[in-house]
TrEMBL record, chain A:
InterPro entries: Aminotrans_V_dom, Aminotrans_V_PyrdxlP_BS, Cys_deSase_IscS, PyrdxlP-dep_Trfase, PyrdxlP-dep_Trfase_major, PyrdxlP-dep_Trfase_small. Its main location: other. Signal peptide: none annotated. This is Cysteine desulfurase, mitosomal. GO terms for cellular component: L-cysteine desulfurase complex; mitochondrion; mitosome; nucleus. Belongs to the class-V pyridoxal-phosphate-dependent aminotransferase family. NifS/IscS subfamily. SUPFAM superfamilies: PLP-dependent transferases. It comes from Diversispora epigaea. One of its GO terms (molecular function) is metal ion binding. Transmembrane segments: none annotated.
Automatic annotation (TrEMBL), chain B:
It comes from the Eukaryota. It comes from Diversispora epigaea. PANTHER family: LYR MOTIF-CONTAINING PROTEIN 4, PROTEIN C6ORF149. This is Complex 1 LYR protein domain-containing protein. GO terms for cellular component: L-cysteine desulfurase complex; mitochondrion. The lineage of its organism: Eukaryota, Fungi, Fungi incertae sedis, Mucoromycota, Glomeromycotina. GO terms for biological process: iron-sulfur cluster assembly. Residues 15-71 form the Complex 1 LYR protein domain. CDD domains: Complex1_LYR_LYRM4. Belongs to the complex I LYR family.
Amino acid sequence: MNFISLSRLLTRNFNYNLVSKKRHLNQGSISNLLKRNYTAATVPDQYASTVTVTTPTFITPSPDSLGFEETKVKKTYRPIYLDMQATTPTDPRVLDAMMPYFTQQYGNPHSRTHAYGWEAEKAVEKAREYVADIIGADPKEIIFTSGATESNNMSLKGVARFYKSSKKHIITTQIEHKCVLDSCRVLGEEGFDVTYLPVKTTGLIDLDVLAESIRPDTAIVSIMTVNNEIGVTQPIEEIGRICRSKKVFFHTDAAQAVGKIPIDVNKMNVDLMSISGHKIYGPKGIGALYVRRKPRVRLEAIQSGGGQERGLRSGTVPTPLVVGIGEACRIAKEEMKYDTERVRKLSQRLINGITSKVKDVVRNGDQNAVYPGCVNLSFAYIEGESLLMALKDIALSSGSACTSASLEPSYVLRALGADDDMAHSSIRFGIGRFTTEQEIDLVVDRVVKHVDKLREMSPLWEMVQEGIDLKSIQWSQH
Amino acid sequence: MSAGIQQSVPSRAYILNLYHSLLRASRSFSNYNFRDYAYRRIRDSFHQHKNETGPTKIIELVKNAEKELEVIKRQGYLNNLYAVDKLVVEEEINEKKATRFRGDN
C-alpha cells in the first residue's frame, strides 16, 4: 500500500516526535529494518553471532499531520556583558599571539638544551618587557604569578615574614580587595599588628591619617590603586612619597588600574605592584608582580621548588599565558588613549541617560578621582539584588564577584559610611574596550524601566512620595 | 612589497584596497562586540592617519595593517567556530532595521 511505504520512509528519521491516534505496529513490514548485526571483534568465538533488536516504539504517524508535530522554538539571546571589573573578554589579538604557544611551540621556557626551550624563553622574555614597559619598570623586576591574588599574597606575606625580626606592623585600608584583607588577617594571627585605615565618604584615604599611622616598626603599606567596586583612584604618588620618606615598603594592588590609567612605578615610588592578566583583556590564570630592585625589596617565597622567577615563584612559567599578558599589556599601552577617550564617553552617556530619567540616584565614590569605566550607582528605595534579577538582559553585579553570592551589603560601601539602604541598593556597571553605544542605550532603557516598576511596588517609595522622612521611622523596638 | 628590497611607499589604491579588505574581514567575527570594535577601530585609525605624508611612517602603518588583516582573518574564523547565541542588543538592532524598512537601508 502506498500509505505504508510512506510511513516507513518517515519513521526512519522522525520516529521520536510522532503522535498517533491509532497506534498500531507494523511489525511485519518493518521487521527487516530492525534486524541489526552486532559483531564483537574482541571475542573471536562470538564473531558471527547475530542479535535481533526489536524496538516497540516504532509506530505509524497520525494521518492528519503525517507524523510531523510543530514545536515552537524560542530563540534565546545572551545578556549584554557589563561587568568588566569582574573580568574582561580576551582580546582576539591577544588570543592570536597565544595560539602558536598552545599548538606548535610548546617548549618549556626553562629548558636550556634545545630549540623548543629557547623559543619559549624568548617569548617569555619579550612578554616580560611589555609588562615592564606599561608600568615603567625594568624587565628584571617583573615576576609572573597566577594572578593578582597570588601577587598580593606574595608581597604582603613575603615582605612581612622576611622582615619579621625587626618589623611587626602592616598598614592597609578598609576597602581593599578580599585577598589583601585575608592575607592581613592571616598575618595578624601570626602575630603582626594590622592597621585598617578608614576612608572618607568619597572613598579616598586621608593622607594625614596614613602618615600618623606609620610606626618605626611598620613593614609594609598596602593600598590599592583603583578600587574594584567603586572605581576610586587613590593618590598613589602622594602615598608613595610618604612611604619613601619614612622608609616603609609600599605595595599597591593595581589589577584594576594597569592598562587603564597611566602608571609609572618610579614616579609613584611603588615598591611592589600586583597586575592581573584577565582585567586587561588578557587570559585568566596569569598575573605579575613588580618587585623593586633599587632600593631592593626582599621577599620570603611562599612556594618552594625549582627556583624559577628568581626563586620567588617556583613552578614552570606558562608560556602561552605569559605571552597573552604581554600582548595584552602591549595593546593596552598602544590603545590607552583611544580606550580612555571611549570609555569616558560611554560612561558619561550611561550616567546622563540614567540620571536624566530616574530620580534619587547616587554615584558612589569621589566624582573627581574615579575611573570612568567603573560606575557604581545606588538607586534609593529599591534593593540592588531585585534590580539585578529584573535586569536579566544585562550581566551586572552589585559588587565584587568574589562576594556576589552573599546578600550582605558591600563592605566597601559600608566603609564609605553609606547607609545600609544605599549600600543594599548599589549596582556596578563596568564599561570596557568592547562596549558599544547601542549596548549603553539598551542598558539605560532597561534600568529606567525596571527602577520605575520596582519603585511603584516599593512601600518606601510610596512613603517618600507622601512626604514621610524615612529616617524618622522607628522600624523596630530596641 | 617583498622583503629585502628597498620599500617604496604603497600606492593610494593599494591602501584603499587594504582598508576595504580590513573592513570586510572585520565583519567575520560572530561576536557582536568584537565585530563592532574591529570595524570601529579600523575606521578610526585610517581616518586618524588620513593626512599622513612621511614615507617611513606610511610604510610602517601599512605593514601593521597587513599584519592586523591576517590576525582578523584568523580570529574571525576561529570566533565563528565557537559561536554562541546572539546578544539581546543585536535583536533590538535587527528589529529596528526591520521596522524602518525603506529601500536599501
